[in-house]
Automatic annotation (TrEMBL):
This is Endonuclease/exonuclease/phosphatase family metal-dependent hydrolase. SUPFAM superfamilies: DNase I-like. It comes from Balneicella halophila. The chain crosses the membrane at residues 7-26, 32-55, 62-81. The keyword Membrane applies. One of its GO terms (biological process) is DNA repair. The keyword Membrane applies. PANTHER family: TRAF AND TNF RECEPTOR-ASSOCIATED PROTEIN, TYROSYL-DNA PHOSPHODIESTERASE 2. InterPro entries: Endo/exonu/phosph_ase_sf (IPR036691), Endo/exonuclease/phosphatase (IPR005135), TDP2-like (IPR051547). Keywords: DNA damage, DNA repair, Endonuclease, Exonuclease, Hydrolase, Magnesium, Membrane, Metal-binding, Nuclease, Transmembrane, Transmembrane helix. Its cofactor is Mn(2+); Mg(2+). GO terms for molecular function: endonuclease activity; exonuclease activity; metal ion binding. It comes from the Bacteria. Pfam families: Exo_endo_phos.
Amino acid sequence: MIKRLVLLLNIVCVLGLLMAYLSPYIPPTVWYIPQLFGLFYPYFLFFNVCFLTFWLVFKRTYAIYSFITILMGFGFISRVYKWNDIPVPESNEVIKLLSYNVKKFGTSSEGKTVNPKPLFEFVSQQNADISCFQEYSNSRYVKYGKSVLEDLYTYAHFNGELATFSKFPILKKQNISFCKNHYAKGIITDILIEKDTLRIINVHLESNQLSSKNKKDLEEVVNKKQGFEKLRSIAGKLKRASFHRVIQVEKIVDIVEESPYKIIVCGDFNDIPLSYSYGRINKLLDDSFVEAGENFGLTFSEGNINVRIDYIFSKTPFYKHEAHSIKHSDHKPITAFTKINLE
């Protein structure tokens, strides 16, 4: 009787994992359900590993269900966990990139402010060649941050809450026009490195627009303190945002495909590695975490919600991707080295 119950639960988790595998391939505008399952991919994977271990001990015949299912999506594991140790080569073609949602340089979601000085000290210590900021604010950085950034960078491109700073000359600045009712921004910055042009796309895709109450409700569900009825409002917001991100990511894909230059896309995608948005970009460009990251590489943390939604993409080779733990935003800054192969 117990084994039958365990087998039933095993089959449910197998089906859940298979649904999660569909999320990068099916637009949520066509079928939204796989996107929800994609959110819980790490849990479905974990439970299937547990069932696999259980059946290997008690009845090996049944172990085949989880084994085959895990094997089918083995490539997805590298999107959530990596064990790379790739040294950074010494070369004048290697540059350091930084992407960071700074949340208005230390402004909390409740409107409270914290001292932004440690944040700028971190940026100064990283000394990246190119830095891309999301939720950027001129007003918060004027006193201390302005001198730090001006010491580091000669060139900059601003548009609203996006900013790209560069040690190399900027040849051209463009803004990406998304739909007016979408909460998304993007800028394109063409940078001259010796005689080669590198195109940087800095984006902040549609936020899920979860209120403080929504986040608290979600945390309570995760903690199993409340029932799932509170998820209805949250699921509706997630669905709307994912629909918008489909349109936004297709716009970025068009820009990438039409670019005559080497290209780097970075920023806050507000979407997890098993999502349609990620999948569309990853078809064209490599993820710095997958290529050169370690551990889970989580970039967003609020309460018990810990996910990876900030990325650096390119076809250039990556070295030493890091997600840094500093506490002046709900996002972690990410850095990566890349070799641009000057022509």
